[in-house]
Amino acid sequence: MSELPLPPGSTLGILGGGQLGRMLALAAARLGFDVAVLERDADSPAGRVAAHTIVGPYADPDALETLAAVAAVVTYEFENVPADSVLILQRLGVEVAPGPEALAVAQDRVAEKQFLNASGAPTVAYSSADTAEEAVAATAQMGAPVLMKTRREGYDGKGQRWVEHPADAAKAFADLGGGPVILEAPADFVRELSIIAARGRDGATAIYPLSENHHEGGILRRTLAPAHVSQALAEQAERIAARILSGLNYVGVIGIELFEMKDGRLLVNEIAPRVHNTGHWTQDGCAVDQFEQHIRAVAGWPLGPTEPHARVEMLNLLGDEVDAWAKLAHEPDTRLHLYGKRDAKPGRKMGHVNKLHPL
Amino acid sequence: MSELPLPPGSTLGILGGGQLGRMLALAAARLGFDVAVLERDADSPAGRVAAHTIVGPYADPDALETLAAVAAVVTYEFENVPADSVLILQRLGVEVAPGPEALAVAQDRVAEKQFLNASGAPTVAYSSADTAEEAVAATAQMGAPVLMKTRREGYDGKGQRWVEHPADAAKAFADLGGGPVILEAPADFVRELSIIAARGRDGATAIYPLSENHHEGGILRRTLAPAHVSQALAEQAERIAARILSGLNYVGVIGIELFEMKDGRLLVNEIAPRVHNTGHWTQDGCAVDQFEQHIRAVAGWPLGPTEPHARVEMLNLLGDEVDAWAKLAHEPDTRLHLYGKRDAKPGRKMGHVNKLHPL
């Protein structure tokens, strides 16, 4: 097994070469680690700042073996890492964090809802369906409208359909590919919030202040943090985060998306077992950001502080919005974070800015 | 010529693969640049976080040509880059910053003193000598003790000797290799301060607050910033910085070491045309640190703000002091910056910590 806490100079592995992997790699480098990225693309945003890139799919046993030969600890930027890849790495003696329980829950929306409700982290009402007939029956039973989502895969609003009448459920089921789905009752929320939390290998937790999030077309546009919330709401969120972290025996940073309901209750929308877009504000708002926090946790280091020193408005730069970089660079209170992606395809996350305001 | 401001996605070249190159590379990556490092060591701290490492000495024309083929803008972490290397890069159409004037002044302690005094940036009295006889005569004329330093090379207290009596000057001259030397009158200072300043390609300047520095055996141990100074002293330092920056038609970050004299005057000890160890506090004390500031300047971007949001005590981790990383990681207000160097030789700069305090 690996020596933990992982000493500086060791190599830390990251599955995935996108912007989250890149920002994790930069944080790891600051702490003196080398980084090895396993990624299908030889020229990835994370690979270009890492000591090693291993080119291959996450499921390739040879690539995983190469990774295990250099990296004693491996983490990932993406919750749809195959469970088998984690098992292969573990058999090769690698410490993988977050662990397989978190991945299993995050990869199946029904398992996620079951886990959350069992942990005392409430969600909207939901049902599941494996066939079109079951989908129609479940919609009728729940009462339309319902939000139908594939049980697996899907992100940024992909893989989901609103079903306005039970009669439309069969078509939505087919549109989503005909595989297992979850049906979720609408959340009559007043705000979307999220909480970024971390748990170390010693069970200690560190929780950042809540952020308020604004999506467009299923994609995050804007985060305001720390969100203006009552002490009671903050404590409710922290209780939820603590239950999720301990329920998963979690190691690393987790992103927990929440609905703030009219009656003041918080429901969990979904969890992401990784650093999270709604936590990017911590890069310029906190002494230890979510990326360093994640590296600390997975490397077995003690967690860092989570107090903010600024109020931050985070804006994603999607597609050709990144072309505004020169204008943004002129704004004194705007910090630019660009991902080094080659093609600014429409809707693609190319970078973000953190606009700083006094607390 | 290069397109300026240099667009994100471009490759930025760095001569030198040590810790300053590494921290510059990390800052460049945050802004979306790729980095190419030219460095003799294939496994360098900076190379391990860069998209490209070109292995070779700084003076190798083939290596410089390879660098010029990928990098439109080149900077350096080390003031003893050969002047010819800069000329070769410029002939290949590369924008090199800081420019050759700054390098020429920084590489020759006599040229440096001449430039500083001519610019209205006062220094201690000094003399120069090319032979042992001249050294003896100059010491006698100035009056011992004097500090004899090689005109070129030397850093962290290397390449210098105190001469207590004119009769000892010949031996000191021989000990220093028998090449040209400078003789400096002692500075009866009350504190060592420094100021980190930047100038953009548009001539705009940005100046960080003064820091107070403590050396041991010629090596920086500790920086406190912002230093407790009067408004008048701060303004005196800013005037000196502004004169040096404009006098050199400077582009980039410069480190200016100062002596605070008993009578309240500031004398310039030396200048370093690069990011500077006494500016590391800005990483955790300012929204834009000296590394991003330098990248912004050399890439032709507008400069960022320099206001501090914390008071910082920076401590260098020399040699095996870096073995305290696990203990330091437990201190909530201590930020660790480790360089990924393989061997913790005695006195070698292995990392630093920034200890944060409220302003």
What does the model show?
2 copies of one chain form a homodimer. The first copy, chain A, is globular, with a radius of gyration of 20 Å. Chain A has 359 residues and is an alpha+beta fold. Chain A has helices at residues 19-30, 61-70, 83-91, 100-107, 109-118, 132-142, 169-175, 231-247, 282-285, 290-298, 325-329, and strands at residues 11-15, 34-39, 52-55, 73-76, 95-96, 126-129, 146-150, 160-163, 181-184, 189-199, 205-207, 211-216, 219-225, 252-261, 266-272, 311-318, 334-338, 349-357. In chain A, strands 10, 11, 12, 13, 14, 15, 16, 17 and 18 form a 9-stranded antiparallel beta sheet that branches. The first copy, chain A, folds into 3 domains: 11-96, Rossmann fold; 125-184, Dna Ligase, domain 1 (2-Layer Sandwich), CATH 3.30.1490.20; 189-357, ATP-grasp fold, B domain (D-amino Acid Aminotransferase, Chain A, domain 1). In chain A, a hairpin with a 5-residue loop joins strand 10 (189-199) and strand 11. Chain A contains 11 helices and 18 strands. The mean pLDDT of chain A is 96. At the A-B interface, helix 1, helix 11 and strand 17 of A face helix 1, helix 11 and strand 17 of B.
